[in-house]
Amino acid sequence: MIRRQQRTIVMPTPTSPLIVDSQVTPSVRVRRWHMACRAPRWPGVAHEALEVACVQRGTVRYVVGRADFVVRSGESCLVPVGHEHLTFIEPGTEAVSIWLERGFVEGLASLLERRGRRVLRAGVVNDEAAVRSLAELMLDEAERQADGCFVSIDALGEALAIRLLRQAEEDGSGPAGSDPRIRRAVDEVQTRYAEVLTVAELARAAGMSRYHFSRLFRKHVGQSPYQYLVTTRVQRAAELLRRGRHSVTEAAYSVGFTDPSRFARAFRRQMGCAPSAYT
Q1: Which tens digit of pLDDT belongs to each residue from 72-93?
Q2: Which terminus of the chain, N or C, has less C-beta within 10 A?
Q3: Which residues contact residue 219 at a Cβ distance below 8 angstroms, ignoring those fewer than 6 apart?
Q4: Residue 29: which of 121, 157, 123 has the closest Cα?
Q5: Are residues 190 and 139 in the same domain?
């Protein structure tokens, strides 16, 4: 039996604009927020969930790595799993935010993968009306908590994730884009991240010279091959730490880091906190 999840309703404050924060199911979290006054500068954060934000009124600016974009009233955006980001909310802004747990999204992505891995990029989404409608339906279910809301929320979450994953293929927004050579290299990192993996090996997997591979990889992925490898390792280490079965040192070595200090620096840079403080 699925147990009813806790729904939190609070009055927004300058430091916390949340009105609703509901972990409705293990896979889906629904939030609604209203920024009544100018917000302080919040530190960068990263979530173990895909965040989809739909702005109903006002303006929000996101800085996600090298991506810097503004989301206006009626628009929606996404922030990928594990990507540290800064959020700047204008006074009077109202928005709905949906968090889809990593495993939930990755499971759906694996079902859809016919021509390579689909990884979502941060930015304003194209399918705005459909995304906004799904998010608002999920908010309504979370607020009402009527019979069957758990099944409904997960189903709506699946529909939302699938639309975004389809769009990733259509517009080439996955890190590999439409280039099968880069897709092979991305898959190589995703499967062999814990090994000693060099740029030369990835270039061979792509069937390219190291020089041309590095340039093309950065063009499609937005990071150098080495940066992408480190990002992947940190994301996997975060998963291990979240499960609570590994110490910080064990997690570092398990994902391919050989220097705990270097791991700690990379983790803090990407996740916004020390590995020992991550839950």
Answers
A1: 898 899 898 888 888 888 888 9
A2: N
A3: none
A4: 157
A5: no
